């Protein structure tokens, strides 16, 4: 049985072995000369073979190595991973091109590493076992552009329990952490130090001098006092507090004639997507228009909106923007994504305009323009619902000597009595359903194809009272198709074209905004929409009653 189980695991691993991947990555970038960093080798299979590291030994000093393996079976699928972590030290600054490495028959992709000169200037007395240093990556920046503040704590003895930096808050700058705290080791004048590093991206918001105050670092280290008890085995610690030196950053104003909004960055990229992206659409049917901006060296909170104010031939219902940011190398990369429900209002050609965004290139010190090209969509009219069959017959001549009365077409004469009976039956059915629902548990709704006008009206009332825009948007066309057959009731837009009813038009516009705008969907005023719908239904009932009276008068005149 044991051998059978091992055979099963081996067979399950075969697909993974065929697709094994070997990746190489560093724990941080860039790296300082004489500072240790970790190179992480990950292989998606189990192996006892050693990786080929000759290319590494020619470039870096290997200070240490560790290896681990993991095996797991999830939903009957087995997988394994072998990981080797190397502690390396770069001897000299520069750009290092690490070639592809080999391990157990797999090859990794080449890797480029940037090693900076060691930042060992103005360090305190290196006889100290614990000290702190603050450093800016540049002495001056343009207003709104990024500067990087690095806080480093150096320790030559063990740090216990807590180790905490004071939070940085600046009145005249946006402050964003650049990733998590990092810990590594570094050789300084032949002595090994542990380093705790915390970095911030600073975005000054006004020209002048940005003052960065001294910041505290608190921790606990081994106490120099000896215990009075010779058998005391507990580590005694004492609190230590360090302070960094205050710094100042010179902030230059934006160049004269610069664009608004002012966007200083290393690069800016724009992208747009349309879903469904067929280049076609129908009036009243929404499309999803996604606008995306990414800026290297800017926080997401500083990125502007790309959406146009108005779009001829369509209405826009924006959702809340999505703001994200990530750290790449020493910089913050911010992204802003906006999704808009785009609802064409008429047939024809809908033109999505060109979007141009001016920004300042801090690398080349000049203005650049990012462009989203215009595009055109072919919008067809709203597809009509199948027309209801209309009965036709030849009208009979009135008897001789009868008083002349304006004749009513026979088709209408056949239609109105049926509609009157249907309305009366609808009201009775509505009353019966309401009484039945009060006395009995809720039952599943009748299938749409089998529901009559009264049932569709009841479903519409329930949807409006729930305030859920999606349910209302589905129930409204169903009831309209039963109440007014032969009309293209595919969307709320058809209502606004068909009825000259101000209140209903306003409420339907709010409904469309709630349905295609923010999530979760909702309605601004369910009561107002309900009143408007009842007013339209009552008006149609009155028209039906008048038509019935006219038919009765016509029948009386024929006698």
Characterise this structure:
With 559 residues, this protein is α+β, with helices and mostly antiparallel strands. Helix content is 24%, strand content 38%.
Distinct helical segment count: 8
Oligomer: single chain
Strand residue content: 35-45%
Distance between the termini: 100 Å
Summarize the structure.
The chain is an alpha+beta fold.
Give the arrangement of secondary structure elements.
Blueprint: H1 2-18, E1 22-26, E2 31-32, E3 36-43, H2 54-57, E4 60-74, E5 77-90, E6 94-98, E7 102-103, E8 106-107, E9 111-116, E10 130-136, E11 140-142, E12 147-155, E13 159-165, E14 173-177, E15 182-188, E16 191-204, E17 208-212, E18 216-222, E19 237-243, E20 247-252, E21 264-265, E22 267-275, E23 280-282, E24 287-296, E25 314-318, E26 322-328, E27 331-344, E28 348-352, E29 355-361, E30 366-372, E31 375-380, H3 410-439, H4 453-466, H5 469-483, H6 492-498, H7 502-516, H8 526-557
Parallel strand pairs: 2-9, 11-20, 21-29, 23-31
Antiparallel strand pairs: 1-3, 3-5, 4-5, 6-9, 7-8, 10-12, 12-16, 13-18, 14-16, 15-16, 17-20, 18-19, 22-24, 24-27, 25-27, 26-27, 28-31, 29-30
Helix pairs in contact: 3-4, 3-8, 4-5, 4-8, 5-7, 6-7, 7-8
Q: Features of this protein?
A:
about 550 residues, alpha+beta, 5-stranded antiparallel sheet, disordered N terminus, disordered C terminus
């Amino acid at each position: 049985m044991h051998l059978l189980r091992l055979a099963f695991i081996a067979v399950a691993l075969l697909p993974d072995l065929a697709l094994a991947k070997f990746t190489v990555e560093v724990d941080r970038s860039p790296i300082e000369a004489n500072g240790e960093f970790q190179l992480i080798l990950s292989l998606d299979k189990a192996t006892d073979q050693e990786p080929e590291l000759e290319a590494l030994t020619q470039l870096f000093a290997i200070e240490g190595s560790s290896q681990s393996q993991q095996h797991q079976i999830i939903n009957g699928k087995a997988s394994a991973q072998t990981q080797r972590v190397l502690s390396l030290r770069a001897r000299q600054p520069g750009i290092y091109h690490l070639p592809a490495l080999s391990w157990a028959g797999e090859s990794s992709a080449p890797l480029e590493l940037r090693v900076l000169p060691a930042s060992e200037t103005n360090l305190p007395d290196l006889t100290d076992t614990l000290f702190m240093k603050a450093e800016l990556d540049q002495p001056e920046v343009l207003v709104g552009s990024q500067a990087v503040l690095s806080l480093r704590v150096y320790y030559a003895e063990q740090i216990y329990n807590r180790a905490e930096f004071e939070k940085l808050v600046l009145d005249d700058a946006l402050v964003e952490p650049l990733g998590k705290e990092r810990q590594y080791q570094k050789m300084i004048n032949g002595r090994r130090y542990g380093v705790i590093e915390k970095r911030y991206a600073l975005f000054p918001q006004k020209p002048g001098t940005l003052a960065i105050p001294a910041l505290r670092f608190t921790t606990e280290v081994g106490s120099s006092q000896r215990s009075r008890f010779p058998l005391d085995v507990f580590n005694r610690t004492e609190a230590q507090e360090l302070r960094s030196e205050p710094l100042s950053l010179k902030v230059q104003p934006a160049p004269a004639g610069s664009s608004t909004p002012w966007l200083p960055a290393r690069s800016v990229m724009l992208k747009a997507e349309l879903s469904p992206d067929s280049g076609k659409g129908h009036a009243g049917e929404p499309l999803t228009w996604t606008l995306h901006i990414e800026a290297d060296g800017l926080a997401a909170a500083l990125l502007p909106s790309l959406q146009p104010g108005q779009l001829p031939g369509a209405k826009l219902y924006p959702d809340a923007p999505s703001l994200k940011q990530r750290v790449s190398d020493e910089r913050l990369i911010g992204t802003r994504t906006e999704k808009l429900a785009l609802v064409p209002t008429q047939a024809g050609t809908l033109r999505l305009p060109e979007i141009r965004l001016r920004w300042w290139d801090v690398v080349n010190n000049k203005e650049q323009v990012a462009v989203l090209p215009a595009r055109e969509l072919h919008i067809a009219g709203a597809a009509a619902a199948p027309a209801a069959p209309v009965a036709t017959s030849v009208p009979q001549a009135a008897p001789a000597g009868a008083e002349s009365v304006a004749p009513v077409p026979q088709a209408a004469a056949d239609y109105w009595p049926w509609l009157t009976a249907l309305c009366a039956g609808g009201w009775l059915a509505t009353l019966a359903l309401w009484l039945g629902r009060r006395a009995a548990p809720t039952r599943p709704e009748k299938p749409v194809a089998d529901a009559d006008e009264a049932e569709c009206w009841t479903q519409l009332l329930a949807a409006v009272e729930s305030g859920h825009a999606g349910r209302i948007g589905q129930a409204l066309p169903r009831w309209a198709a039963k109440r007014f057959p032969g009309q293209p009731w595919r969307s709320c837009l058809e209502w606004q074209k068909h009825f000259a009813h101000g209140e209903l038009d306003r409420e339907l516009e709010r409904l469309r905004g709630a349905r295609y705008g923010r999530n979760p969907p909702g309605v601004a005023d369910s009561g107002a929409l309900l009143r408007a719908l009842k007013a339209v239904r009552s008006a149609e009932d009155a028209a039906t009653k008048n038509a019935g009276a006219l038919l009765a008068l016509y029948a009386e005149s024929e006698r």
